[in-house]
Amino acid sequence: MYKSVETLLVDIPTIRPHKLSVATMQTQTLVLVKITATDGTVGWGEATTIGGLSYGEESPESVKANIDTYFAPLLSSVQNQNIAQISKLIRKTINGNRFAKCAIQTALLDIQAKRLSLPLSEILGGRLRDRLPVLWTLASGDTDKDIAEAKKMIELKRHNTFKLKIGARPLQEDVDHVIAIKKALGPEVSIRVDINRAWTELECIRGIQQLQDGGIDLIEQPCAIQNTDALARLTQRFEVAIMADEALTGPDSAFRIAQKHGADVFAVKVEQSGGLIEACDVAKIACLAGIDLYGGTMLEGPVGTIASAHAFSTFENLAFGTELFGPLLLTQEILTTPLQYENFELVVPNAPGLGIEVDENKIEQLRR
Ligand code: MUC
Ligand code: MG
């Protein structure tokens, strides 16, 4: 049923250094998966991560090795095109590897939706919206540059909500940087922070108190991934919304965190969840537990970004919007027609499958 599974590593410089507590990115390595079915239909998926092995448990190189060695032979042996059955077989045969699983599942869903002549969102249950609000991350590391960048984004009608990456510098320096940006942009502009698990619980208490007093709207993954008890205590302690990001590693962890109301908001990421279907499961668990949703990114290029958009378009509650700006951080376009960003939103395509056309000549030039 599937003729070939190819994994392509494509290194693209970013428009500026992107500084997180765990890494500074100058380049993003897109991990693209192309599956060709025996009838010739092609599907695309993406397993991009951030900063090699510094963010997630899979690196671009490990994803490629594991797909070539384990996923590809498994897919060449399947005799049907039933995605539920193939996903079950993959889960049974392959442990972990959520990013790789997501890329494979996305490509299979792209093929299936193309065969049915439906946008991918429609085989995930159906979209509730055609456009998604998209924020921008300010992560140059320089307060004045970040303020200028934010003002430009508002003027261009590209983004009017901003997330700041903090946690790399001493706590007070980071907090002062955030408050200075909030003051410069004013009360109308929503400012959020992502600490990427850099603070101890005590630092969280000190830092979040000041951020809450300074009018910040959302605090993302402030403490260690495994310390979900601390995350729950912070959620109970503060009025400002606390969001789980790295702590969410799929429906199981979502269920465990939801059971103790361990966060006010879930950052749903399709790769972290292990697939688009699993991301929808995470969203459903959040909904049932009264937890708000935010559509997260692994800073994927256009393939993973639009796959995420199809999944997020089906969510009932998307109270905190999305951060699907990954392609805008890259200096090179790999689609024949770029994704449509306008009026602070990303448009979810209506064409069959993912609804995009990958520029294969461009990828051939750029791939490792
Ligand atoms: C993260 O942890 O949220 C998403 C946006 C961004 O700037 O970094 C990523 C990772
Ligand atoms: Mg985050």
Automatic annotation (TrEMBL):
One of its GO terms (biological process) is amino acid catabolic process. Pfam families: MR_MLE_C (PF13378), MR_MLE_N (PF02746). The active site is at residues 165, 323. Pathway: Aromatic compound metabolism. GO terms for molecular function: chloromuconate cycloisomerase activity; manganese ion binding; muconate cycloisomerase activity; racemase and epimerase activity. Its cofactor is Mn(2+). This is Muconate cycloisomerase. Residues 144-241 form the Mandelate racemase/muconate lactonizing enzyme C-terminal domain. SMART domains: MR_MLE (SM00922). InterPro entries: Chloromuconate_cycloisomerase (IPR013370), Enolase-like_C_sf (IPR036849), Enolase-like_N (IPR029017), Enolase_C-like (IPR029065), Mandel_Rmase/mucon_lact_enz_CS (IPR018110), Mandelate_racemase_C (IPR013342), Mandelate_racemase_N_dom (IPR013341). Gene3D superfamilies: Enolase-like C-terminal domain, Enolase-like, N-terminal domain. Belongs to the mandelate racemase/muconate lactonizing enzyme family. Keywords: Aromatic hydrocarbons catabolism, Isomerase, Manganese, Metal-binding.
